[in-house]
Amino acid sequence: MKRIITFLALMAGIVSVFAQTPNEIVARMESEMKIHEKDGIEMIMDLKLPVIGVVPAKTLMLGAKSRTDSTIEGTRTVVWTDETTVWSYSSKTNQIEIKDATANADNTQSNAKMFEGIAEGYKITLINETPDAWFFKCKKARSNKDKNASKKMELAVAKETYYAVSLSVKGLLASISMRDIKFGVTEEQVTFNPNEFPNATIEDKREK
């Protein structure tokens, strides 16, 4: 009996060493995401809109460049961005439109930034756990002064890698979920190439 008690005490000590709070787990996730940011991020963004429903978009990001590919009601749209320019292709018109980038031209990069500052800016509660992942509810803390920060989010983190599995945000008129998150994007994948749509007409609307 004495040996059993000693063993249980030892195991309890081991468990306490490895126990992590929700904030510690999310902070580790943020650190891992930051480490691999330079490799580029690939994800699926599900935008839920009234009437239309859920619109999935495949998004690739590398540095200041991004590419988003989606299909809405049969029309394929591809958008490439960098620090100065936005290229938009529509299968409906078979046209590529080129514009100067503006602050609100594309929010792809800002969506990716939603994975940052969660550990410090939110009250995080563990709501579910599986052998593979933790599932958290994140409520914006009173100390969080970022006016653009979402009030509530749901986050899943992989146990093996501490990578984000998914992040969901619900708004009044729309909601967005980011899932199937992977690392590893090439420069070629996020760089506009007119040869991809050789029959499309190009309309350059940039200010000269």
Topology:
Blueprint: H1 2-18, H2 22-36, E1 41-49, E2 53-62, E3 65-72, E4 75-81, E5 85-90, E6 95-100, H3 108-112, H4 118-121, E7 122-129, E8 133-140, E9 152-158, E10 164-170, E11 175-183, E12 201-204
Parallel strand pairs: 6-12
Antiparallel strand pairs: 1-2, 1-11, 2-3, 3-4, 4-5, 5-6, 7-8, 8-9, 9-10, 10-11
The total count of strands amounts to 12
- CATH architecture designation: Clam
How would you sum up the global shape? elongated
State the CATH superfamily name. Lipoprotein localisation LolA/LolB/LppX
Largest sheet: 12 strands, mixed
CATH topology: outer membrane lipoprotein receptor (LolB), chain A
- Return the CATH class: Mainly Beta
Give the percentage of residues in beta strands.
35-45%
What is the mean predicted local confidence, pLDDT? Answer: 85
Give the H and E element order. Answer: HHEEEEEEHHEEEEEE
Contiguous helical run count: 4
Radius of gyration from the CA trace? 21 Å
Strand order of the largest sheet: 7-8-9-10-11-1-2-3-4-5-6-12
As an assembly, this protein is: single chain
Distance between the termini: 85 Å
Q: Structural class of the secondary structure composition?
A: alpha+beta
